[in-house]
Please model this.
Amino acid sequence: MAEFLQATGVAKTFGGLSAVAGVDLSVDEGDIHCLIGPNGAGKSTFFKLIVGTYAPSAGTIAFRGENITGMPSSARVRRGMSIKMQTPSVFRELPVRQNIQIALQHHVAKTDLPKEEERLLALMELSADADKLAGTLAHGQQQWLEIGMALALKPKLLLLDEPTAGMSTEETFRTGELIKSLNAEGMTVLVVEHDMAFIRQVATRVTVLHFGKVFARGSIGEIISDPRVAEIYLGKTHAA
Amino acid sequence: MLAEIFSFLYQFADVFAFLILASAGLAIVFGMMGVINMAHGEFIMCGAYVTVGLVKAGFPLVLAQALATLAAALIGVIVELVIVRKLYKRPLDSLLATWGLSLIVTQGMLLIFGGSMSGPGTPEGSFSVGDYTFSVYRLVLFAAALGVLAFIYIVFMRTKFGVYARATMQNAPIAQALGVKVGRIYALSFGIGAGLAGLCGALYAPTMTLIPTMGATFIVESFVTVVVGGANVLLGTTPAGVLLAIIRSGLNAWGGQIIGQIGMLVAVILIIRVLPEGISSYVARWLAAMEKAKS
Amino acid sequence: MLVYPAFADSYSVGNTAYLLAWVFMALGLCLLWGYAGMLSFGQTFFFGIGGYGYGVLALNFGGGGMTFVALILALALAALAAVILGYFMIWGRIGGVFFGIVTLSATLVLAFFLGQTAGPEWKIGNARLNGFNGMKGMDPLTLPWFGGSQVYFEGTYLYYLIVALLVIVYLLLRMLVNSRFGNVIVAIREDPQRAELLGYDVRKYQLVTFVIGSVLAGMSGAVYCSWGQFIAPSSIGLPAAAMPIVWVAFSGRSDLTAVLVGAYFILYFFQMITVQSQQAALVLMGAMMLGTVMIAPQGFFVGITRWIGGVLARRKAAQAKG
Model:
């Protein structure tokens, strides 16, 4: 069977600078796969290569058995992936409700739209703020709105780039539970995070990126007990 | 045969000079501040009018041209302080504001000074190669275009102002935090851009009839050169000028001026499809790759 | 609006029709710029293609019902030009300020080209282009009527035709901006990358929008040409190219209704001043453009509407309290 998501030798250089230097990574269907690594390890760039914001300098990306390397982002999204970016990127000047509508409308029938809209607003706990401009929401709420928009696409693969940045411990925990429940319904999740407690809470598999390359991979237990990882990543956390 | 080759080179040099002189000021302002100055043509017009006015008042041509350049630069600084400064976060609005200014100036000039005004006439002097006769002044214009590029190179690569200006171009907030007076750099850059536009008008004033709307003669050429060149004058505008001058002078020779202009526009539209970020980013990437290969 | 011709003299009716003819291109620019965030300086480029297209075709087809064929083909020509130009710009990722200056360059080159077609060799079939002096003598829009008679759309008839077209265009645009399509182009204006990541092929939406906005400019051109049986390059080049921008910017680009009303009033006052001095009118236009940007970037008509809305809302709230 073809891999769910398979990156082979994916590289990206900016000018002469190498951000991602030949990553081989496969994500199995049904996993919550965490991508970790120190700042500048190339995690966000790698995400942007998967969704097609950047074109890779080398390598191929396959999604559900299809080579998507040269496709525009919109075509990849329609094939069943969606992303929440690192910095909240919602339509700030538009109301929350319209944000959700825009995400929902191209695959939800007109008659079902209001119902779906309310369901998502409730799920993201934004019903009370539905008519506010998205830019006026608190940072954590914007993160939730963006996750809601990503979910509106009913993706098979959900990419989350630091979903809990700027959230309180309690909000972070609830985000983790939400991700687990989505996963239980069959959604595969690939997530970039720094928060180790969060990773312990959700991850079924972990890959460590370092200097643009895959440094280690395994279950959360294996990664935590790997002394080399502790040195480059956890060690740094402890020191900080 | 030799005469034909020289003739083509001469045509090329003529078009190249026109493109560079018309676009250098626009390119500096765009490269530094991301602003397209729609009143660029009016700074050219200003340079031309001041030159002719001073020549009629008895000034020697070269001195008149130098003073006209300074006058345009000074007005540029004022325009930056009064209008453009407030719009740096809204590039589209700066486009509209300068366009509004351009309308006010051209139509206001038409109201006050009326229609056309004759220039002082192209300075005499010609030479022959084979059966062809060439104007010396056209070669002076070519030399001036090279001079402008050298001036830009020296100012931006070899002076303290240039260091600050390039830092500001890269990242204005950080430059500000490091003590660069960003506002002053912007005003000066706009002044240099306007001054170069004025110089363009001053240099072409002897070759054409002056009308308040003469900026329109230059503006298509300056736009397309900047669009093809991208944000960097030295790495973008110059190669863009060479490329477009080859296309333009070839088409001019083949089908006349209007075919040359239409052909150039079509070429530009094809080029932007292939090089969306302009030549300068392509050249910069190529230079970076060379650098890397060396190390 | 419908009974207006009943109590106005025929000159005023004709003149109103003339002013309304320009409003199509203002609405097109409002869609492009206000809703989709694409600031095109090429409205008069398509105005020229629509106008010259209608003129050349009408001169060649002869009059009668064929004038409507000429109108439709002229609009198709404008659409084709918009597809080609739009494709290269949008697929070449030309955005922001460059979108403006590339469209303006195309506009100016078209005006230069038409300006030097004075010679007798510049003719297409029966149509002499006639350089700066402009092309003339084409039939106005004409409808063959029962019993072999014909209805020329001049004067009052043309007024009704233009009003009808304008109402249809306005309502269709309203429906468009309130539709899913409208939602998407607004999203693209706000953040094209985000819209792309929600699965929308941004380039296709932008191209379709560009074609609609540009065809409306072509419609202005064709209707204008039919109205005056004349078109010249001066309606294309500078300063004409700035006019739609002024109407839309001053009125308030984010609202179709504000542009509909605002553009008409600006045209009306502009004409009053032009009678005295064209230069003075254009200086005023420049000042309006500059003033809008510096004082009310969202536009004056929209500003006034919102202000009135705000006052009313406050009064209502006060009454509810009292």
